Amino acid sequence: MAVISRIISYAGGDDLAASRDFYVEVFGLEVAMEDPVLGLRAPTNPTAQVIVPPRGMEDPPPRFGIDVGDPAAVDAAHAEVVRRGSRVVYPLTDEPWGVRRFFVEDPSGTVVNVLAHLP
């Protein structure tokens, strides 16, 4: 079983600059990444994060992400998803920004981004 290092929420992204200002000024989050998505984190708890992808970046868009800690755990989760017959809606991929991930649809239809940072 994977060791979950964080669960990441996703927000819509029609205006990334306005979203950045909102989360920074209202909640005090800090910008951790701006490309390819706006990534924000709590300064005192860097595992508390909000990701704002530009609208239309991913189809289907995930509702949240689960960071399983390392790429081998992503592979293990993917194998279990396939074994169970769950629907993979984005294939197992090493992204150019440094994560290994795939999207799976849970039994209720929620799309989940399963990921880990590459070494």
TrEMBL record:
InterPro entries: Glyas_Bleomycin-R_OHBP_Dase, Glyas_Fos-R_dOase_dom, VOC_core. It holds the Pfam family Glyoxalase. It comes from the Bacteria. Residues 3-117 form the VOC domain. This is VOC domain-containing protein. Coiled coil: none annotated.
